[in-house]
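Anyone have tokens for Cytochrome c oxidase subunit 8, mitochondrial? Sequence:
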Amino acid sequence: MATSFAARRGFSTTRTQLASPYHYAEGPRSNIPFNPLTKYFFLRYWSFMIAGFGAPFAIAVWQTYKTK
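Reply: yep, here.
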């Protein structure tokens, strides 16, 4: 009886609607907010990382040597 019940269930899938406002492009590099294939991407990436990581240390050094 259990097998006949499972056979009657209507499993189906529908095609994704590309006109939906909630459907975005799929595939590699489509889920990131920047394009890593540009010419100077790695230069911009590393300068952003160095500035972001080094800024707290630079601020700490500046605050240490600042005159009161």
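The first helix runs from residue 2 to 8.
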